[in-house]
UniProtKB/TrEMBL annotation:
Keywords: DNA-binding, Phosphoprotein. InterPro entries: CheY-like_superfamily, NreC/VraR/RcsB-like_REC, Sig_transdc_resp-reg_C-effctor, Sig_transdc_resp-reg_receiver, Tscrpt_reg_LuxR_C, WalR-like. CDD domains: LuxR_C_like (cd06170), REC_NarL-like (cd17535). This is Response regulator transcription factor. SUPFAM superfamilies: C-terminal effector domain of the bipartite response regulators, CheY-like. Residues 2-119 form the Response regulatory domain. Residues 151-216 form the HTH luxR-type domain. The modification 4-aspartylphosphate is found at residue 54. GO terms for molecular function: DNA binding. Transmembrane segments: none annotated. GO terms for biological process: phosphorelay signal transduction system; regulation of DNA-templated transcription. It holds the Pfam family GerE.
């Protein structure tokens, strides 16, 4: 499988390659530093299975670059990988046809898990898309509801806080990082995680991540 990494920073392109090679034993990573190079690579690549696209790469012209790539390879998932991951950025990208949106702040493990989800036919969105800041009146747009039929069992048993914590766990965050993100004590995170494991039938954090990723769960309907 060929994967195109379109990003104007060579350090980013080179840094992603070892993680992308975990997706399959025969992965070949192609490079593009601007939109013209990306379009040329897409046109000439046989067996292209995935495109990672920087939101602010030269030639993107907003999201027109994404739309051009989608027109060239409509059957190939295009995932935005960006340092800009506000809700507005994510919503606009998905509405323009992105198969996922991965912030550049996530860990390599979380990125690989997210890309496996995309390659399985699901969409991946960062947890910040689903959980508004305290006091915010924003609600998740209906166009972002990936599973309109509701939260799959056993995830329907999770409280909102437990769903938040599980979403951050899937992103590869440590207990300390989750505690800082949610302004909670680390011991509180451990207690919530024990409840999460019990409710979804996981023995540990690795198994919880695997169950969440394999089910295609997203926290959109968390209570």
């Amino acid at each position: 499988m060929k994967i195109l990494v379109a990003d104007d920073h060579k350090l980013v392109r080179d840094g992603l390659k070892p993680f992308l090679q975990e997706l399959a034993p025969d992965v070949e990573v192609l490079d593009a530093a601007n939109m013209d190079e990306a379009l040329a690579a897409v046109a000439g690549a046989e067996g292209l299975g995935l495109v990672l696209l920087d939101l602010m790469m030269p030639g993107m012209d907003g999201l027109k670059g994404l739309e051009l790539l989608r027109a060239k390879c409509p059957d190939v998932p295009v995932v935005i990988v960006s340092g800009f991951s506000s809700r507005d950025h994510v919503v606009a990208a998905v509405q323009a046809g992105a198969a996922g949106f991965i912030p550049k702040t996530v860990s390599g493990t979380a990125m690989v898990n997210a890309l496996r989800l995309v390659l399985s036919g699901e969409k991946y969105l960062p947890s910040s898309t689903f959980f508004e800041e305290p006091g915010s009146q924003m609600s998740m747009p209906s166009s972002m509801t990936i599973r309109p039929t509701g939260v799959p069992a056993p995830f329907d048993k999770l409280s909102r806080r437990e769903a938040e914590i599980l979403a951050l766990l899937v992103e590869g965050r440590t207990n300390k990082e989750i505690a800082l993100c949610l302004d909670l004590q680390e011991i509180t995170i451990k207690v919530h995680l024990r409840n999460v494991y019990r409710k979804i039938g996981a023995a540990n954090r690795a198994q919880a991540v695997r169950i969440a990723m394999s089910s295609g769960w997203v926290p959109a309907g968390a209570a």
